[in-house]
UniProtKB/TrEMBL annotation:
GO terms for cellular component: cytoplasm. Belongs to the acetokinase family. GO terms for biological process: acetate metabolic process. NCBIfam families: butyr_kinase, PRK03011.1-5. Signal peptide: none annotated. Keywords: ATP-binding, Cytoplasm, Kinase, Nucleotide-binding, Transferase. Transmembrane segments: none annotated. This is Probable butyrate kinase. It comes from Thermohalobacter berrensis. The keyword Transit peptide does not apply.
Length: 358
């Protein structure tokens, strides 16, 4: 009987691949392998990066003297699969197929399950993914957009949102299933979710033009004007998509996706930077307010997380607008690596059965 489970976790992001080794919940290795634009931009599709990313992971583990045969499981961040409820999933053939083709689109995390599976199958141990970006627990009422051809989709920072929500529930002395929380993940993308008794019943699609604008995404837009722009003949579909995701938000207004740069601009007296950064906080606050209506005002806590939650000026602006709703809890950064390990551990310990992706 194994007391200590050793788990390798893999989290591929747009500019880095994070890996970690955990002995149960204890991290024994945490590495962020950065990828330069030159390294990444030569690959047309996310799947084309597979060999490159797998090799840098294996080289890093080798350099750190990690004996792979001691691993009990490999857990990857799941990608743009078909919509599924939250939880831990065994990697299977169907999942690999969908991740390879990018059944719902291209995202670096599509490689998480594929690489986890490759490493695990060589070692004859299980491979899992946990709470991928397509976790979909939305209420049916939240799917209605106002245009029957377009259904709202749940695509968000599910892994970190669920992890910090569980942490907050614990701090409130309750089970996640017994609380109502609003979680705002403030990263390169921004997602704000209503967690009602353990289910994310409404959340903005953080990848595709919904919710607040973010460091590099436009968020929701005035649609009539957007439609005119699309048919003006000045832009291709690719141009417009890039304006929504990649070159939107802070990048479009201020030329940077780095919140720390914006803070410096404001400290140097840049009034435009202050207006735009404040507008981002204003939109995040409005989104939180709208989700308080989703939860009928019964909100146990509002959680601010992600990289921008390190910035006290930004969280202060949000706090002053929404603290009348519920207590504010700030968890800067993300808990993604430990969340991956914990998802694997719950299954290895028999506390939860791994779900099957169909
Ligand atoms: N102290 C800080 N002050 C202001 N902004 C910060 C600070 N630390 C990090 N950030 C900003 O947080 C953002 C990145 O957040 P995070 O690392 O959560 O995003 P990501 O992992 O790249 O993307 P995503 O969370 O959307 O997957 C960047 O704009 C970064 O500059
Ligand atoms: C949508 C969640 C992940 C991201 O922002 O890239």
């Amino acid at each position: 009987m194994t007391d200590v489970y050793r788990i390798l976790t893999i989290n591929p992001g747009s500019t880095s691949t994070k890996i970690a080794i955990f002995d149960n919940e204890k991290p024994v290795l945490e590495e962020t392998i950065r990828h330069s634009t030159e390294e990444i931009s030569k690959y047309e599709k996310i799947y084309d990066q597979y060999e490159f990313r797998k090799n840098v992971i294996l080289e890093t583990l080798n350099d750190k003297g990690i004996n792979l045969t001691k691993l009990n499981a490999v857990v990857g961040r799941g990608g743009l699969l078909k919509p599924i409820p939250g939880g831990t999933y065994s990697v299977n053939e169907k999942m690999i197929e969908d991740l390879k083709v990018g059944v719902l689109g291209e995202h670096a995390s599509n490689l998480g399950g594929i690489i986890a599976n490759e490493i695990a199958s060589q070692l004859n141990i299980p491979a899992f993914i946990v709470d991928p970006v397509v976790v979909d627990e939305m209420d049916d009422i939240a799917r209605i957009s106002g245009m029957p051809e377009l259904e709202r989709k749940s695509i968000f920072h599910a892994l970190n949102q669920k992890a910090v929500a569980r942490r907050a529930a614990k701090e409130l002395g309750k089970a996640y299933e017994d609380v109502n929380l609003i979680v705002a993940h403030l990263g390169g993308g921004v997602s704000v979710g209503a967690h009602k008794n353990g289910r994310v019943v409404d959340v903005n699609n953080a990848l595709d033009g919904e919710g607040p604008f973010s460091p590099e995404r436009s968020g929701g837009l005035p649609v009539g004007d957007l439609a005119k722009m699309c048919f003006s003949g000045e832009y291709t579909l690719k141009d417009i998509k890039k304006k929504i995701k990649g070159n939107g938000g802070l990048v479009a207004y201020l030329g940077t996706n780095d919140g720390r740069e914006v803070v410096k601009m404001i400290e140097n007296g840049d009034e435009k930077a202050e207006l735009i950064y404040k507008a981002m906080a204003y939109q995040v606050s409005k989104e939180i307010g709208s989700l308080s209506a989703v939860l009928k005002g019964k909100v146990d806590g509002i959680i601010l997380t992600g990289g921008i939650a390190y910035d006290k000026m930004f969280t202060g602006w949000v706090k002053e607008r929404v603290e009348f709703i519920a207590p504010i809890m700030i968890y800067p950064g993300e808990d993604e690596m430990i969340a991956l390990a914990e998802g694997g551990l719950r299954v290895l310990r028999g506390e939860e059965k791994a779900k099957e992706y169909k």
